[in-house]
Design brief:
Elements: H1 2-18, E1 29-36, H2 59-64, E2 74-83, H3 90-104, E3 111-115, H4 121-131, E4 138-141, H5 154-165, E5 176-179, E6 182-185, E7 190-191, E8 200-201, E9 209-212, E10 215-218, E11 243-247, H6 255-262, E12 267-272, H7 280-291, E13 295-300, H8 315-318, E14 321-322, H9 328-338, H10 345-354
Parallel strand pairs: 1-2, 1-3, 3-4, 4-5, 11-12, 12-13, 13-14
Antiparallel strand pairs: 5-6, 6-9, 7-8, 9-10
Bound molecules: D-glutamic acid.
D-glutamic acid binds near residues 54, 86, 119 and 144.
């Protein structure tokens, strides 16, 4: 079965090798930047949907497997990394963002698709949402089933992402995430399920729209600033400030906070219970961290809702920042970028109310 499926790919490759991609002036030019993940994954059998290997197929194989893309865009591909996205790092983000900005400056590039593991798509998407300096569409896409699986979702997700990236209607909307026929905003999207194709949700506010026949249909737009309207510029940055996340739960200890501070972190995000609540030992440790100059942001582990300033903790007194409705992993990203601009907590709180 697997052999026939891969042969299917082979057939597609053979067909495409002879029928070269014809460049059509009438079509948009979309560049696919591949980074790895399940969309490029392979399993031992066609029913292997867990326990497969991510980041195996190169960008050309992904493109060759979807010949229909050449009817909606002139597609080119670059392999930026080949990793499972749990291994994405700040350094990967800086390299990817710089390449995106470099490509989008070119008049010959109308939009970009980034293929990516689903585990950290929401983080890469939000980071790019804050540092891409173009109104052209940037669409991040992944898959929940490997390329070798029955009903692999990668090919249709990739086709849809290219359709969005080539659409003028997707311009100026910030970075988008597109899987399972839905279009999500980078700021609000999160992976909500370990296995379902419908895993990407925006629990607070819902998706931005759908993809129908490879074309985006939008119903909403994000109200927060992004891309060309942000104050963040990573052009001259070689590294990002060290910021980590500490998780809140019953019986939580101060140990990880002390360890991160000793390790040199300049910012900490606490994923608190409920509305960002702080257990007493944790609050003490965070107060001591603040006194040493570490910037502290209170978020919530709940996955939706606003962590309100001066709600479960007196942020004015503690000189902490409240994360608004950003989850902890996204609050970390905004705090890292904020710390490239300022250490002033009032200014950082403003940023959490704007982005
Ligand atoms: N290892 C995970 C990743 O690369 C697989 C999940 C996926 O890509 O769907 O994010």
């Amino acid at each position: 079965m697997l052999a026939s499926r891969l042969a299917g790919y082979g057939l597609a490759v053979a067909t495409l090798c002879t029928a070269s991609f014809s460049y059509a002036d009438s079509l948009p030019n979309v560049t696919i930047l591949a980074t790895g993940g399940t969309i490029a994954g392979t399993g031992a059998t066609s029913t292997t949907t867990v326990g497969y290997s991510a980041a195996k197929l190169g960008v050309e194989k992904l493109i060759e497997a979807v010949p229909e893309m050449k009817t909606i865009a002139n597609v080119s591909g670059e392999q930026v990394f080949q990793i499972a996205s749990e291994n994405m790092t700040n350094d990967h983000w800086l390299k990817l963002a710089k390449r995106v900005n470099e490509l989008l400056k070119q008049s010959s590039v109308d939009g970009i698709v980034i293929t990516h593991g689903t585990d950290t798509i929401e983080e890469t998407a939000y980071f790019l949402n804050l540092v891409v300096k173009s109104k052209k569409p940037v669409v991040i896409v992944g898959a929940m089933r490997p390329a070798t699986a029955i009903s692999a979702d990668g090919p249709i997700n990739l086709y849809n992402a290219v359709g969005i990236a080539g659409s003028k209607d997707a311009q100026g909307r910030g970075v988008l995430v597109a899987l399972n026929d839905e279009i999500q905003g980078a700021r609000e999207v999160t992976k909500s399920n370990t296995m379902l194709a419908s895993t990407f949700r925006a629990p607070d506010l819902g998706s931005l729209g759908y993809v129908v026949r490879g074309k985006p249909v939008f119903y909403r737009a994000t109200a927060r600033k992004h891309t060309v309207d942000t104050e963040f510029d990573i052009g001259k940055l070689d590294q990002l400030p060290e910021v980590d996340v500490v998780y809140g739960y019953a019986n939580a200890k101060r140990t990880p906070i002390d360890a991160f501070v000793a390790g040199g972190d300049v910012g900490l995000v606490h994923a608190g219970t409920g509305n960002g609540s702080l257990a007493t030992p944790v609050k003490e440790a965070l107060k001591e961290a603040r006194a040493k100059g570490v910037i502290v942001v209170r978020s919530s582990r709940t996955g939706s809702g606003i962590t309100a300033r001066n709600g479960e903790a007196n942020d004015d007194e503690l000189d902490f920042v409240a994360a608004d409705n950003l989850n902890a992993q996204k609050a970390r990203i905004l705090l890292m970028l904020a710390l490239t601009k300022t250490r002033d907590t009032k200014d950082i709180q403003r940023m959490f109310e704007v982005y």
